[in-house]
Amino acid sequence: MKLALQENLVPEKDLREKLRKIEQYGFEGIELWGRNELGNRMKEIKDAISTSKVKVSTICSGYSGDLLGAERKVREEAMEGVKQRLAWAAELGATGVIVVPTFGGPKICDLSPVYSSVEEFEKKLLVEECKILGKYAGDVGSFVLLEPLNRYETHLLRRLEDAVNICKEVRLDHVKIMADFFHMNIEERIIPESIEASGEYIAHVHLADSTRELPGYGHTDFKGGFSALKKIGYKRYMALECSIPGPPELELPKCAKYLKKCM
User: Fold this and answer.
1) Which pTM does this prediction carry?
2) Structural domain count of the chain
3) I need a surface site. Which of 4, 36, 214, 255 has the fewest CB within 10 A?
4) Domain enclosing residue 155, as ranges
5) The domain spanning residue 150 has which CATH number?
6) Is the peptide bond before 113 cis (omega within 30 degrees of 0)?
7) How many whole angstroms separate alpha carbon 103 and alpha carbon 93?
């Protein structure tokens, strides 16, 4: 397993210096924000990582629209945005793109009696969208990484098994899931058991403690979670997505040592 940092956690503006600091702190990857300006940074990023041991782990969302929006135009906007980021991820040698199907509550109206619930229709719609995105991901050489969120941030995919069930219906190798320790701390009964049950479908991991701060500042059992990841043969990146309760130059190296001890 390899440790990564989201790019905003290191304050340096120059990317080469940022990568130098990331390596110095004890991390091996950088997770990029997928905002539209990422497309204009591709040459800069490729030049910087070509001379660094630190590589791009993943691209975190950043597209506009909503895969489960009420309007077709909004859904198509999200589909095209994910596709563009999948292409960028492949170009940068990253695992894939983190995809949250929708934030908040349902946007689509009640479709009864055709569907017993809005969620039933949303899942069918998401499966069909993921078939399209998964085929595209396979063509370019990247992965769609479905992210379950906690109940306060989404109504749909909230546990790992929810995202795994979508993957099982899609039946494409390039549609996987991401396991986020902060969200799992809220939604999963026993984190290690959920990880083991998800097995081969986990292709990326986010790290944050129960406080949504750096690991080590809450009560999350990272040792148990990491043990489960090892058991399923997980060898990819685990990226920090959290706040830093202190100076990054002090807290990040300390966090890297803590996480490696937990491994």
Assistant:
1) 0.96
2) 1
3) 36
4) 2-262
5) 3.20.20.150
6) yes
7) 28
